[in-house]
Amino acid sequence: MTARRRAAVLGSPIAHSLSPVLHRAAYAALGLGEWTYDRYEIDEAALPAFVEGLDDSWAGLSLTMPLKRAVIPLLDGISDTARSVEAVNTVLVGADGRLTGDNTDIPGLVAALRERGVDKVASAAVLGAGATASSALAALAGICAGEVTAYVRSAERAAEMRQWGERLGVPVRTADWSRAAEAFEAPLVVATTPAGAADALAAAVPDRPGTLFDVLYEPWPTPLAAAWAARGGTVLGGLDLLVHQAVLQVERMTGVSPAPLAAMRAAGEAALAAR
Fold first, then answer.
1. Which residue, 133, 151, 156, 256, is the most exposed by fewest CB within 10 angstroms?
2. Of residues 2, 135, 4, the one with CA closest to residue 60
3. Average pLDDT over residues 220-234
4. From CA 193, how far away is CA 45, in angstroms rounded?
């Protein structure tokens, strides 16, 4: 039987992905010399053929956009976590060839916050309403005791966030993006917007901010994150999320636990610094 030692990240575009750096650093630290981790430029049209071609040399896949929902019909099953947000970022290949989808973004976000001492908050705010925002809501379901306010740009997005809240058991209030600076009154703010979208809010950071989790990692720091840190607030970035979700992927794909968090983070920081 072929040794199960292959893994990869799929998506489009994929050239920017740090996943190979993180996973290869983990394999090196764990002494898994036979393991390889590659990247493949795969869009939704090419995904079915790629998945069909997986053999017993494969242990798993990491998925980024636009594949997190497109992969679901191709799998034999998905975890409750992945089902809760209809998004799969991890595919595990079983010894019997069974393909199981999972989502490590949600527990990764929780683990990153816990590492910084954020286990429970009375309320929270989310900037944005895309796929990452729904994962943020799922994570907040376990750590936010009260209401989550989502700041969005359209009535359609507002309705979507309220629906996600109902589905995930999180009380969600929505507000127009023009009031986004009000988010900073919350003890925890999760910024899920694209690069540049929240830059203008940097001037509105209060004198004593709480915790900001800005999911971007390049360019870093964002103007918002820099302003937040300058005023003494706790700041987490996209690399924190990327590393913690990758730690969980490595553990589930290799069966080795714990994965080397420090080595993976150091490799990610070095790769970003070299860009």
1. 156
2. 4
3. 97
4. 27
CA pair distance 38, 110, nearest whole angstrom = 27
Whether residue 258 has a cis bond before it, omega within 30° of 0: yes
Q: Which residues have CB under 8 Å from 229's CB, separation 6+?
A: 221, 235
Closest CA to 182 of 201, 164, 195, 169: 201
Residue 1 has pLDDT above 80, yes or no: no
pTM for this prediction:
0.94
Q: What SS3 state is found at 73? A: helix
The letter for the amino acid at 150 is: A
**Where do we find the tokens 């999760």?**
190
C-alpha distances (whole Å) from 151 to each of 162, 165, 175, 186, 227 are: 11, 14, 5, 12, 20
Q: Is 120 noted as a catalytic residue in this protein?
A: no
Q: Which residue in the list 6, 23, 39, 68 is annotated as catalytic?
A: 68
